[in-house]
Amino acid sequence: MFSMLDAASHMARRRIISSVYAKSNLISGPSSVTRSTNEIIGRDLVKHISEQARSGTVVGIVQLYARMMVDATSAFIFGMDGRSNYLHDETAWKLLAKSFGDRSQGVFLPQELPVLNNLAQRLGFKSGTGLDLVDAWCLDKCRDVEARAIAGQLEEGEASVWRSLDNAIARSKKDLDRDMRRRLVASEIMDHIVAAFDTSSIALNYSTYQLSRPCNRHIQDALREELRSLHGQDKDGQENSLPPLKSLDGLPLLSAILMETLRLHQPVPGPQPRVSHAGATLEGVGTLPSGVQVSANALCLHRNEDVFPNPNEWTPHRWMKEGAKDDERLKEMNRWFWAFGSGGRMCIGNHFAILHMKAALAAIYSRFATEIVDDSGIEQLE
């Protein structure tokens, strides 16, 4: 779906899974992520950090957040029994992470100069996205969940993303054999996995970095107080794994911290290209020829000083409403906010990402205090 240029094809694919990724479904619907967030974030992530904290070991968050997000996303797509378990398997993670990293060396030509890329391949030059291992991983996961579905081992609402894609492609691609249809499903799913590795983990990294800076310690303390108001105690005196997702989603400071991090440290800061259709117009330019690539840049949009005063400063409270007078200001800020894009091409997993990022920050800051040990190389690059 991500690479579909044709608007009709893109919208048709988007409709297949839009209801699955709806916030209402994620919080309390048949495909609720409550169990997966409690087990992967509230249990596994917290256990991992607790063990390192008790031993006095520095916690490296960059890969930790990526492992968590891939585990959580695969649980949503393939079901809890078909998910990855990278929070517990660092060796396997290193292999997959290398494949993710390798793709950055081979993206430009296929994406921006496909004709030249095809020519280079014909001449024998190595070219590709570097995602062969991830591609094979997605195919294996699809085979596994397919076998469990045939055996009647999937619970109601489980693996809804895979189910929706598999059923839709089976109906629309009847001329293709089972293996090719499986590859189409795996190709779509790989986009979701790559997004989990890249975007959500980047936003969590910078949220933790900003909260850990000495100048922002008061914000970390305020967040902890906000979170503690939700954490109940069970009869044994142990904290519950996570508060309800609906309650987390309504916390004003937690929401403001994420919005400000996504504004200042947008995971996709560079161009998000679109291709003009016949008769398209652009303000200040006029009518465009068909097939022209046009792009906007979230980094620039988020640094409009008229909308975001002191735009290079991390100021979560700019997103908090103090009174009715703030309504218009917040409305304008949201109009310029473009971390997930907008319109028909807006990120379909935005609610999934935000809920999981909120759950991760809640799990950590209701239990731990963080400080920076080494922030070398923290400067964000495109």
TrEMBL record:
<dbReference type="GO" id="GO:0004497">
    <property type="term" value="F:monooxygenase activity"/>
</dbReference>
<comment type="similarity">
    <text>Belongs to the cytochrome P450 family.</text>
</comment>
<keyword id="KW-0560">Oxidoreductase</keyword>
<dbReference type="GO" id="GO:0020037">
    <property type="term" value="F:heme binding"/>
</dbReference>
<dbReference type="InterPro" id="IPR050121">
    <property type="entry name" value="Cytochrome_P450_monoxygenase"/>
</dbReference>
<dbReference type="GO" id="GO:0016705">
    <property type="term" value="F:oxidoreductase activity, acting on paired donors, with incorporation or reduction of molecular oxygen"/>
</dbReference>
<protein>
    <recommendedName>
        <fullName>Cytochrome P450</fullName>
    </recommendedName>
</protein>
<keyword id="KW-0408">Iron</keyword>
<keyword id="KW-0503">Monooxygenase</keyword>
<keyword id="KW-0349">Heme</keyword>
<keyword id="KW-0479">Metal-binding</keyword>
<dbReference type="InterPro" id="IPR017972">
    <property type="entry name" value="Cyt_P450_CS"/>
</dbReference>
<dbReference type="GO" id="GO:0005506">
    <property type="term" value="F:iron ion binding"/>
</dbReference>
<feature type="binding site" description="axial binding residue">
    <location>
        <position position="347"/>
    </location>
    <ligand>
        <name>heme</name>
    </ligand>
</feature>
<dbReference type="InterPro" id="IPR036396">
    <property type="entry name" value="Cyt_P450_sf"/>
</dbReference>
<dbReference type="Pfam" id="PF00067">
    <property type="entry name" value="p450"/>
</dbReference>
<dbReference type="InterPro" id="IPR002403">
    <property type="entry name" value="Cyt_P450_E_grp-IV"/>
</dbReference>
<dbReference type="InterPro" id="IPR001128">
    <property type="entry name" value="Cyt_P450"/>
</dbReference>
